[in-house]
Write a structure and sequence with these properties.
alpha/beta; Rossmann fold; nine-stranded mixed β-sheet; two-stranded antiparallel ribbon; 5 helices
Length: 236
């Protein structure tokens, strides 16, 4: 049995992410990574990294300070932004497999020089945040049939949850959008050339909160990430 250690960024509902990634597998250990722990060095213990959801990425990180007017000021954590941008740099230097979820997609798009839509409804799209009663929205997505994501899920379309008010806008260098919502919001990013670097999959939905493990946009995503982490151990 191959033992793997996966670093996971600290944030809201950390335990939910950790439980989903580890699943029932004894061979998977998840460790928290965050500025409050001052433990950047722990990336050297990790075989892969998950970037979780949470606060908005501050618009100064992608060169759009004027977008502050469209953001919720308390919903920032600039120390988290800085820690995780450096964490991504180190993960790429070490060629670790990376899975980004919600904020994780947005932060990594910014890492590669992309920008964000600061508030989806203000930009004239459907509301992708929670419903007024606090429950999750959901919607369909379309998947590029030539993408890594399609190879993982085997599905040209799917159904996912939705709990975000920001999204990727201009795509970062070397990335490509491979899934879209009906109103054109980017739902997944990956490398344009999947062989140009280590495994990288970024999804806007929250697979860790979806109960249907048979949904390929939940179970298959987790399984592929874990397998890529194991494969990385063999090749390093």
């Amino acid at each position: 049995m191959i033992k793997v250690t996966i670093g996971m960024t600290e944030g809201r509902m950390y335990a939910v992410y950790a439980d989903w990634v580890a699943g029932m597998a004894d061979e998977v250990e998840v460790i928290p990574l965050g500025y409050t722990r001052n433990n950047m060095a722990d990336i050297h213990r990790c075989d892969g990294v998950v970037f979780t959801g949470g606060e908005d990425v501050h618009p100064t990180r992608y060169g759009k300070p004027a977008f502050l007017a469209h953001c919720i000021p308390p919903d920032f954590d600039e120390r988290r932004d800085d820690f995780e941008l450096e964490l991504m740099r180190q993960a790429q230097t070490r060629q670790l497999p990376v899975l980004g979820i919600c904020r994780g997609l947005q932060l990594i798009n910014v890492y590669y020089g992309g920008t964000l839509i600061p508030d989806i409804t203000t930009w004239g799209r459907f509301n992708h945040a929670k419903l007024p009663n606090g429950s999750e929205r959901d919607h369909s997505i379309r998947v590029d049939p030539h993408s890594l994501l399609f190879g993982i899920t085997g599905s040209p379309e799917g159904w996912v949850n939705s709990l975000h008010h920001q999204s990727a806008d201009r795509i970062g260098e070397g990335l490509v959008a491979v899934a879209l919502s009906p109103d054109g919001i980017i739902e997944a990013l990956e490398r344009k050339d999947v062989d140009s670097g280590s495994f990288l999959l970024l999804v806007q939905w929250h697979p860790e909160r979806m109960d249907d493990t048979r949904n390929p946009f939940v179970g298959a995503v987790r399984e592929r990430f874990i397998n890529e982490v194991k494969k990385n151990i063999h090749t390093t």
